[in-house]
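note to self: dont lose this again. the chain is below, predicted strucutre after it. 546 aa total, dont forget to put it in the shared folder this time
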Amino acid sequence: MGVQFLSKLFPIAGQPLVYTTLLNGSKFATQWTVYVGPLGDTGLHELEFLLEVDPVAMGQGGSLITQRCRLVCDESLRPVRYRTQTAGLGMSLEFKGETVDVTMPDGSKQTVPLGDGQFIMESNMTGQQALMLALGHAQGKLAGEAKFSAFVVNALMSVPYQMAPAPDLVGAGGKMYRSSHEEELLINDDGVLLVARTPSQAIEARREDPPPPLPAWHDKEVLPLVRLTYSPPAGKTFQLEDVAIPGPVTPLGATVTVPAGKGPFPAVLFLSGTGAHDRNGFAGEVDLGTHEIMDHLSEKGFVGLRYDTRGAGKTLIGKDVLEQGLETVITDARAVLTYLRGRADVDPNRIALIGHSQGGTVALAIAKDEGKKIAALVLMASPGRAIDDIVVDQIVDQGRKVGLSSNTVDSQIKQFKDYVELVRADKPWVAGQIPDHLFVGARGRRWFQEHLARRGDALVAAVQCPVLVAQGSQDFQVSPSKDAEHLVAAAKAAGVEVTYALLPDLDHTFKKVQGESTIAQYYDGSRHVDPSFLGTVTDWLRQRMS
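---
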């Protein structure tokens, strides 16, 4: 890494390279790149990347997100070691020839192929992109079409990156380029990235000169992590028992709540939605309310079982992390059901499943296969149609809420539909044969494939137990008319006993909202699962499991 190359990006010793990122013109992130210096006479160099993201500015909610990454690389920016840390969770990468040894946030190990990756790249780290482009400029690559390959940390795989001059674009202070990741780049005569914008996402990163000072937390060894904690309700009569359930890949941490009295009791297994949720329904700073639902049911005479999904609570990510999809979730849930059915305090003929959001699809898949072994099924805000139709509606809704233009929203929908068509084709994904900006999503294609194969309307028609479809009227993630009513119609057409409960003014978490529901409201810890919903579920289960 020659002195001349460095001097263009870091003209003043100790001064960082800084980019601010905007969504639809509003700043939501700042990223600092610091050249720490050479590591003795090893020929290696160290750089540090710092990031602040304001989720509120993105139309979401929660505390400021802070991230620090450290890179050790050679003079050509080829990575040797990389560590990324966000809110108390860290991941380390060791680059060894043709492979990368990865230590995951839970301490588990993975080894993945490096592929053609010559550079490191992580989401929102514009400085990493700037380093790659500046080196390419110093090597004379940017005179025409240029080809790179970056190891993308978020996907743990190498992805092609190509760019070419774009004389039809206008940019002050430099030359414009287009990349194969749908970016428009402004690079000055010294090879310094000035602007990187992605029009289809309404996102733009700008170099700040002079740079703002480093954030106050930059020298802290451990970045803060906000953790929610569970406390049993005052005056509870049920007992809590923490257990580790043997899973198909990794043990699953769980809590069993046992009502007062003499069993065996009817039982309920809770199946949570997409993402890493602990047994109480805590996902970062969001309390989804699982503990309130299950505690209430145990007070009313049901054994309850709730568990940590992969990567949350006491459940490890698992050695199959790179290949996980919906079937992984279903297989884990089956193992938990087997454990619940085998407990002496549970009546195996009176077991119900409660599935929230994606958990509803999981519950339906299990109930379909279990037949009459499942006594009742509660679907909370569960998808009733193809997953791609739901995501398109979510794109439209979120775009409206953050003020995106109709053209931008249309671009996002087109990009997503292009991705889904590739997923549906079910052909091997090979770099260079898939558009680069879509290839970066290769790790997620199994999840979509398996969701597309398990539509809620088809599954509900095959169950052999009573079904309660519960839906909040203010849910913007799952539609009352397009999903809930569709599930009810499909069940009735198949002769399945079904009850529909549309609860006014409740959102996707079945909590009361004032006005329009937004993601930001999910972070409001003063809200609780609505009593009317709890009463509806309890009464319905009692009638069918007495």
